[in-house]
Specification:
This protein is mainly alpha-helical. It folds into 2 domains: 1-56, no CATH class; 58-138, no CATH class. It has 7 helices and 2 strands. Helix 4 crosses helix 5 (80-101) and helix 5 (80-101) packs parallel to helix 7 (121-137). The longest helix is centred in the first third of the chain and has 24 residues, at 32-55. It is globular and about 50 Å long.
Length: 138
């Protein structure tokens, strides 16, 4: 994310501190206009990435550290489990990209033993339940 994107995120985070702004902001964020903007932005980013990869070499191995799903959910007033499900869906999307680009190896670091001790039982049950569901899609 570039400087402008970080600035927009910081401004949005600051504005969402006030309850009076949260409701209308949520309506705008969930509108078809926001979806259209995000979809177009994703297409532009994807095309730019493809152009860069065409000019250079494709990596042999990509590693991903799954991080921020709880923060993502909390910042949107969602349950933690919903954030983890969003993370799983994004990982499936990334796996498709890796296959499309012909990258032979992908490593995903999803949960450390240190992370397990700081989580509630319900959250861990939800995470563990997603593992076999995710493997079915692989």
């Amino acid at each position: 994310m570039g400087r402008i994107g970080r600035g927009i995120d910081a401004t949005a985070k600051w504005l969402l501190k006030w309850r009076i702004i949260r409701g209308p902001a949520r309506l705008i964020a969930n509108s078809r206009y926001a979806y259209s903007f995000i979809t177009r932005t994703d297409r532009v980013r994807t095309n730019r990435l493809r152009d860069r990869l065409k000019r250079g070499t494709v990596p042999e191995h990509v590693s991903i550290i799954m991080d921020g799903n709880r923060r993502f959910a909390c910042s949107r007033d969602m349950e933690k489990e919903v954030g983890h499900k969003h993370g799983k869906e994004k990982l499936k999307e990334v796996m498709d990209w890796v296959l499309d680009l012909g990258i032979p190896y992908l490593t995903v670091y999803a949960l450390s033993t240190e992370n397990v001790t700081g989580r509630e039982g319900e959250e861990l049950d939800s995470l563990y339940a997603q593992w076999p569901l995710g493997m079915i899609h692989v």
